[in-house]
TrEMBL record, chain A:
<feature type="transmembrane region" description="Helical">
    <location>
        <begin position="253"/>
        <end position="273"/>
    </location>
</feature>
<feature type="transmembrane region" description="Helical">
    <location>
        <begin position="381"/>
        <end position="404"/>
    </location>
</feature>
<feature type="transmembrane region" description="Helical">
    <location>
        <begin position="81"/>
        <end position="101"/>
    </location>
</feature>
<feature type="transmembrane region" description="Helical">
    <location>
        <begin position="168"/>
        <end position="189"/>
    </location>
</feature>
<feature type="transmembrane region" description="Helical">
    <location>
        <begin position="113"/>
        <end position="130"/>
    </location>
</feature>
<dbReference type="GO" id="GO:0003954">
    <property type="term" value="F:NADH dehydrogenase activity"/>
</dbReference>
<dbReference type="InterPro" id="IPR018393">
    <property type="entry name" value="NADHpl_OxRdtase_5_subgr"/>
</dbReference>
<feature type="transmembrane region" description="Helical">
    <location>
        <begin position="424"/>
        <end position="448"/>
    </location>
</feature>
<feature type="transmembrane region" description="Helical">
    <location>
        <begin position="469"/>
        <end position="491"/>
    </location>
</feature>
TrEMBL record, chain B:
<dbReference type="GO" id="GO:0003954">
    <property type="term" value="F:NADH dehydrogenase activity"/>
</dbReference>
<feature type="transmembrane region" description="Helical">
    <location>
        <begin position="373"/>
        <end position="404"/>
    </location>
</feature>
<dbReference type="GO" id="GO:0016020">
    <property type="term" value="C:membrane"/>
</dbReference>
<dbReference type="GO" id="GO:0042773">
    <property type="term" value="P:ATP synthesis coupled electron transport"/>
</dbReference>
<keyword id="KW-0812">Transmembrane</keyword>
<protein>
    <submittedName>
        <fullName>NADH dehydrogenase subunit M</fullName>
    </submittedName>
</protein>
<feature type="transmembrane region" description="Helical">
    <location>
        <begin position="6"/>
        <end position="26"/>
    </location>
</feature>
<dbReference type="InterPro" id="IPR003918">
    <property type="entry name" value="NADH_UbQ_OxRdtase"/>
</dbReference>
<keyword id="KW-1133">Transmembrane helix</keyword>
Length: 645, 515
């Protein structure tokens, strides 16, 4: 009951406000959606204190699809993993609903915005509580739709429409693989329900299957298809191009969907399917490789961007890489731990950035900011907390911000693991930690410090945001400070955080091994962080002007990074343009040039004259047709008579 | 209720209504008003009666129900025979419902020859219901071909500028198909000595003859579906047809092909079906990719949706020839879903066409600003067409893709590309029509959806959602019939073990083997 209320409250809010928002008015719409979200958040907290570490159970609603052995129910699966996800989604979504009331106060379509946010929350909750892969797909696509609507919220801007479409279509590429993964799961397990799949997975570890004409290790190919789906949703390299563009949406959207919750769905998927991934060594190697590569790739791009939201977007992409390679090396717990802490501090950073943008009269370019920290001290403080949590600030042996615990755990796990690519992941992770600290410092120093670079008019209007925005910021700030310390039990090998929700194979001892790494490994993230932060201080505070000089010195590299490794241009050339050209070619060449020319038009050409002579067109055709039918009947009857004889 | 000839009643009631309209006299306005009224009430009563069929339908029975029989050509083995099973049940209801919807939807948009218009649609109703109920080949043939006559009239009289070309093309394509189908009918009759469909289903034709019969029937059904490369009539016909015509064309007429495959090709010619299945897979896979790409570059709203229909029907034909109940039920669900969703999409086009009289996508933009409810309705059906879970579009697609995956993964792969391409062309359409800034002067005056339009959309929205979240309502009655069909054809498919796998030179049977 608790969970049914938890999941359905946002749906109710979305439905009421989505359909009747214009009659209810702005204030009532905001109260309804925020109020229902408050209930969800409350239920999520109750759930955490009641069900963490308990064995999994189900809340069955009703049958969805039941055809030819394919049985999929609408039901909720409650275990530690879904409980922690419900907390992250429900609580942060509630804070962002509240923040949006302030942030969108000048927007004419407030009810629509609140309805979309609630719709998103509902879909995300359905995703994390799914008990079978089809319901997961429901949530998966549902969040995609909500994300499309929210990115394109300001639909009069061409860039927002383009970004919304891009997000949905690139995600669909991943979903395409996920759909085939569902087909493969059903083929192998004769079921789409988690219980059946997870129980049977171990017994299939050494089997092979013929798919697509090739022979594969059964679980490798299945998990690979699932993981490609996860890459789309979680913006991993290759399918990441939509995420930076998604920043066209209002900032609360970026915080909720494109930082804290939706983009982590891929990590959730891998963790949820840990009983299957654990027996798929090749896929795990691929996960590690992709995660580590994304982690460093996005960090390099993040260093060169000037749009404050894009920097944070690339940072998100990079942090998702950390989570994935944690899963890839077998430390799913560390991945989900980082997912949780990241949700707090990244939402904080985005909302903080939103507060900055709000203060700067909708300016997003950091080159036009600077010198505003005294004017918006609270936002400034919150941005520092978010930054310190992101870069994993802390004193080894004593304690630190949220990211300090989770990122260290991931790097130690990567070092200690015996999975493929684990050292590649470790070193990329350390290097990315340097870059993370650098671009985070750069963001703070560029936007808050130095000489004001905005025009006079804007500077006069710089103001602190109202409490309805700053209170959620502070709550998230508390989370960004303590989440790591409080939930550190997630990566302790002993203890009962998970209650069996995450499976680790018999060979997998990474949670033990990560606590026994050499001292330098434990210290590496600290020095990486300190070095990166120091470097950014030198570049942007101590010796401003250094950065452009260095950029000028390595112009080709700078261009390469600033243009995001030219992924967009590449995809445009090899996918978008050929698809359109092919479409045109098939239409003009195929349909009109070949099929019609030699088909109906050719025949028509010869009969055209006759047709035109018939006075009234429509009667002409009916006549024709009746004639043909008559001939048919005549043939039929004669045949019959012929046979009778 | 049990003693009533329910099927004949549902079939011929609209014809009675059409007769009434025919005799309406008076000045133009009175005639139009009365014709609309009679058409609405007739179609509504017909729909309610068709619901009675569902209410009295026995889910456990695989064979035909509500069977009626009357001698017709005595001694020839040809009789008037009606009956439905789980496969045809929903098509009957879809036909009667869509007739109500088009009568309501075109309440204000048709001004010329209202009387004839309403007659044409009521006659269509009779023929559509009849074709799905007929249990005799000759009877079926009469309905099947007769249905095209009102359609020609609808396109020819109430159509657009190039209606001559469109109806001519339509005519030429179907002409060839009908002739071949007629030959098949005659041949079957000569062989089996009866035109009784249930008897023919279990007759067991000679395998070689099956192939010829199959090709002849294929010629007719493939044009109707339409399958690539017999599809080029559809975009032209849709473009020129009035909205109501497009709704029935997409909603019901395209289903005749799929229904034909399930009712005739599979049960009567199982060996040939197994033999030709790879051909179907290949043509369907090509259709999904090819027509989706073509849809991407269209500048005419109706053409775009017409091409998307062909892609969706590609999924249907794959499902029809998948020898498991997931695939076949998937194809039926996909047909029903397409009947609802594409009908609604054509109505969405109709709404703005009535106001601005152009289908050119570039003439629109920014409608979200002054037509918010329209934007919402269009958005819903866009996502239903894209196949987002929770809408009807998803369920059928999932069932077919997962169903065929069990036999041939490459076919599944190409069918699933529709996921990506479908999203691309539909969202691109939506963006250009509804999103963007409202800058064009003539658009600013457009009014949001009218009450009659909302009433017409409402049942379709409800259906698309119900089918999306609780499809069991629709799959439960068809379970028994489809299972019987599957077990009937599965031997043939097993005896041609490579048949389902030949397409595109793909894989051997998928199987698990211990290492």
């Amino acid at each position: 009951m608790l969970h049914t209320i938890l999941v359905l409250c946002p749906a109710l809010g979305a439905l009421i406000v989505g359909l009747f928002g214009r009659y209810l008015g702005d204030r009532a719409s905001q109260i309804i959606t925020c109020g229902l979200m408050a209930i969800t958040a409350l239920c999520a907290w109750i759930g955490v204190f009641t069900y963490m570490g308990e064995p999994a159970f189900k809340v069955h609603w009703f049958t969805w699809i039941s055809v030819g052995g394919l049985e999929a129910d609408w039901s909720l699966r409650i275990d530690s993993l879904s409980t922690i996800m419900m907390l992250v989604v429900g609580f942060i979504s509630f804070l962002i609903h509240v923040y949006s009331v302030g942030y969108m106060s000048h927007d004419p379509s407030k009810p629509r915005f609140m309805a979309y946010l609630s719709l998103f929350t509902f879909a995300m909750l359905m995703l994390v509580t799914s008990d079978n892969i089809i319901q997961l797909f429901f949530g998966w696509e549902g969040v995609g739709v909500a994300s499309y609507l929210l990115i394109g919220f300001w639909y009069t801007r061409p860039s927002a429409c383009a970004a919304a479409m891009k997000a949905f279509i690139v995600n669909r590429v991943g979903d395409f693989a996920l759909m085939l993964g569902i087909g493969a799961l059903f083929l192998v397990f004769d079921s789409v329900s988690y219980d059946v799949i997870f129980n049977k997975a171990a017994s299939l570890a050494d089997t092979q299957i013929v798919l697509f004409g090739g022979t594969f290790q059964t679980l490798n190919i299945i998990t690979l298809l699932l993981f490609i789906g996860a890459m789309g949703k979680s913006a991993q390299i290759g399918l990441h191009t939509w995420l930076p563009d998604a920043m066209e949406g209002p900032t609360p959207v970026s915080a909720l969907i494109h930082a804290a919750t939706m983009v982590t769905a891929g990590v959730f998927l891998v963790a949820r399917f840990s009983p299957v991934f654990e027996f798929a060594p090749s896929t795990l190697a691929f996960v590690t490789f992709i995660g580590a590569t994304t982690c460093i790739f996005a960090a390099t791009v993040g260093m060169t961007q000037f749009d404050i939201k894009r920097v944070i977007a690339y940072s998100t992409c990079s942090q998702l890489g950390y989570m994935f390679f944690a899963c890839g090396v077998g430390a799913y717990q560390a991945g989900v731990f980082h997912l949780m802490t990241h949700a707090f501090f990244k939402a904080l950073l985005f909302l903080g950035a939103g507060s900055v943008i709000h203060a700067m009269s909708d300016e997003q370019d950091m080159r036009k900011m600077g010198g505003i920290w005294k004017k918006i001290p609270l936002t400034y403080a919150m941005m520092w907390i978010g930054t310190l949590a992101l870069i994993g600030f802390g004193i080894p042996g004593i304690g630190g911000f949220a990211g300090f615990y989770s990122k260290d755990a991931i790097l130690e796990a990567a070092y200690a693991s015996n999975g493929s690519f684990h050292l590649y992941a470790f070193w990329m992770g350390v290097l990315a930690a340097v870059l993370t600290a650098f671009y985070s410092g750069r963001l703070i120093f560029l936007s808050f410090h130095g000489e004001p670079r905005a025009d006079h008019h804007t500077m006069e209007h710089v103001h602190e945001s109202p409490p309805i925005m700053t209170v959620p910021l502070m709550v998230l700030g508390v989370g960004a400070v303590i989440a790591g310390f409080v939930a550190f039990g997630m990566v302790e090998p002993e203890g009962n955080w998970w209650g069996g929700a995450i499976f680790t194979g018999p060979e997998n001892h990474v949670l033990h091994a990560m606590h026994e790494v050499p001292l330098w490994v434990s210290l590496a993230p600290f020095f990486a962080m300190a070095f990166g932060l120091g470097l950014s201080w030198v570049f942007y505070i101590a010796m401003p002007g250094t950065a452009p000089k260095i950029a000028a010195a390595v112009r080709p590299l700078d261009n390469f990074l600033r243009n995001k490794w030219y992924f967009d241009e590449l995809y445009d050339r090899i996918f978008v343009r050929p698809a359109l050209a092919l479409g045109r070619g098939l239409w003009h060449g195929g349909d009109q040039g070949i099929i019609d020319r030699f088909g109906p038009d050719g025949v028509a050409g010869t009969t055209w004259g006759t047709a035109l002579r018939i006075a009234r067109l429509q009667t002409g055709y009916v006549y024709h047709y009746a004639f043909v039918m008559l001939i048919g009947v005549a043939v039929f009857v004669s045949w019959y008579l012929f046979l009778q004889r | 209720m049990g003693d009533w000839p329910l099927l004949s009643l549902v079939t011929f009631l609209p014809l009675v209504g059409a007769g009434f309209i025919f005799f309406i006299r008076g000045d133009e306005e009175t005639v139009a008003r009365n014709a609309r009224g009679v058409a609405l009430w007739t179609s509504l009563v017909t729909f309610i009666l068709s619901l009675m069929i569902w209410a009295n339908f026995d889910y456990a029975q695989a064979g035909f129900q509500f069977v009626e029989r009357a001698d017709w050509f005595e001694g020839l083995g040809i009789s008037y025979r009606m009956g439905i099973d789980g496969i045809s049940l929903w098509f009957v209801l879809l036909s009667t419902l869509l007739t109500v919807v088009v009568v309501i939807g075109s309440w204000f948009s048709v001004h010329v020859r209202v009387k004839e218009f309403m007659i044409a649609f009521l006659v269509m109703d009779t023929l559509m219901v009849g074709v799905f109920c007929a249990l005799d080949l000759v009877l079926f043939y009469i309905f099947f071909e007769g249905i095209l006559i009102p359609m020609y009239l609808i396109i020819g009289i109430w159509g657009g500028k190039r209606r001559i070309y469109a109806s001519f093309k339509f005519f030429l394509y179907t002409l060839l198909g009908s002739l071949l189908f007629l030959i098949a009918v005659v041949t079957m009759y000569v062989q089996a000595g009866t035109t009784d469909i249930p008897s023919l289903m279990v007759y067991g034709f000679d395998p070689t003859l099956q192939k010829w019969l199959w090709i002849a029937m294929f010629a007719s059904f493939a044009v109707k579906v339409p399958m690539w490369p017999f599809h080029t009539w559809l975009p032209d016909a849709h473009v020129e047809a009035p909205t109501a015509g497009s709704v029935l064309l997409a909603g019901v007429l395209l289903k005749l092909g799929g229904y034909g495959f399930l009712r005739f090709s599979l049960p009567m010619l199982p060996d040939a079906s197994a033999y030709f299945a790879p051909l179907i897979y290949t043509l369907s896979a090509v259709a999904v990719v090819y027509t989706s790409l073509v849809a991407l570059v269209q500048s005419d709203m109706k053409k775009l949706i017409a091409y998307s229909s062909i892609a969706h029907m590609g999924i249907v034909t794959i499902g029809c020839f998948t020898p498991n109940s997931l695939g076949i039920q998937g194809s039926i669900v996909q047909m029903l879903s397409h009947g609802v969703v594409s009908a609604a999409l054509f109505m969405c086009v109709g709404v703005v066409y009535d106001r601005l009289h152009t289908r050119d996508i570039d003439a629109y933009g920014g409608l979200a600003q002054n037509m918010p409810f329209y934007a919402l309705i269009f958005l819903f059906f866009t996502f239903a067409a894209v196949g987002v879970p929770g809408t009807s579009g998803f369920v059928g697609e999932l069932m077919v893709i997962v169903g065929i995956f069990q036999f041939n993964q490459w076919v599944s792969f190409f069918a699933a590309t529709g996921l990506i391409l479908g999203a691309a062309y539909m969202l691109w359409l939506y963006r250009r029509v509804v999103f963007g800034a409202l800058t064009k002067e003539n658009l600013k005056a457009l009014k949001d959806v009218r009450l009659n339009e909302v009433v017409a959309f409402a049942p379709l929205i409800i259906l698309a959602v119900v089918m999306g979240i609780y499809p069991s309502i629709f799959t439960a009655p068809m379970n028994a019939s489809v299972d019987a069909l599957v077990s009937h054809v599965s031997t043939a498919f097993e005896q041609a073990p490579n048949a389902p796998h030949l397409a595109l030179g793909a894989s051997a049977p998928a199987s698990l083997a211990a290492r």
